[in-house]
# Entry
Amino acid sequence: QVQVVESGGGLVQPGGSLRLSCAASVTLFSTYTMSWYRQTPGKQRELVAVTVPGYSPNYADSAKGRFTISRDNTKNTVYLQMNSLLPEDTAVYYCKADSQILGKVYWGQGTQVTVSS
# Structure
């Protein structure tokens, strides 16, 4: 059974940093588009960053210049380095693994990020 597991969330002060990790127990991980989304109560889940094999990463405007998505295909893991965090970055962050080739989409359970003094 495929598992997508996020980790690294927590409480951080404004201006601080966190690195989220997402490990996906899928085969052919290198073919998967890996994305980070976030969601706050009462709002739709929004895309934060995405890494597509063979392409440069893309970011939401709110994440540009502060967040960096990266992947380690040897570890089946994608990361989200978040710097200069703002209170409005507070959300549950979700990882998504998407393979159009295989027709598979998997979501993690989410990890809470709280930015507060």
